[in-house]
Design goal:
single chain, 151 residues, alpha+beta, Beta-Lactamase, 5-stranded antiparallel β-sheet, 4 helices, globular
Length: 151
């Protein structure tokens, strides 16, 4: 995370997430309000862990305009299985399980091709949230091009 600039959406959301969790705990989803971080909403994707007939899946609940501009369309309500390639989908499920077990945020640098074929180098942070009874059920992913600054 040291490489992520202080005014990048991923770092700013990380700081907000840490404030939401009492004494280092994973924050509850009910404690998050978009009113508190309006500038970060375009970079936010909310995915919910759901049980399906074929096992656990991640379903997109909300997506900011940055992701919509990358993909060229909206994916709210869709399973990641239907959005990503098989290998990337499996990697996201493994990542979600690792984050759920570790109960901490996760950072990465990725490259993504947008809907017109241009490559983007992105910073990406994934943040777990508790839905009920201390069970992590949602993941907020914040991503933006490396050069994005908000302050």
């Amino acid at each position: 995370m040291q490489e992520i600039p202080p005014d990048h959406p991923v770092r700013l959301f990380s700081e907000h997430w840490q404030k939401l969790g009492a004494a280092g705990a994973v924050p509850a989803r009910q404690d998050f309000s978009p009113i508190d971080v309006p500038a970060l909403l375009p970079y936010l994707v909310v995915q919910e862990l759901v049980e399906t007939g074929t096992g656990l899946d991640l379903r997109t609940r909300l997506e900011g305009e940055f992701l919509v501009s990358l993909t060229g369309g909206r994916n709210v309500g869709n399973s990641l299985r239907n959005i990503l390639g098989a290998a990337e989908y499996q990697a996201r499920l493994v990542e979600a399980e690792e984050i759920r077990q570790a109960r901490e945020m996760h950072f990465s640098e990725i490259e993504a091709r947008d809907h017109v074929g241009d490559m983007h180098k992105l910073f990406r942070g994934t943040f777990p949230f508790v839905l009920e009874e201390d069970k992590i059920g949602q993941f907020f992913t914040v991503m933006g091009d490396r050069h994005v600054t908000l302050l």
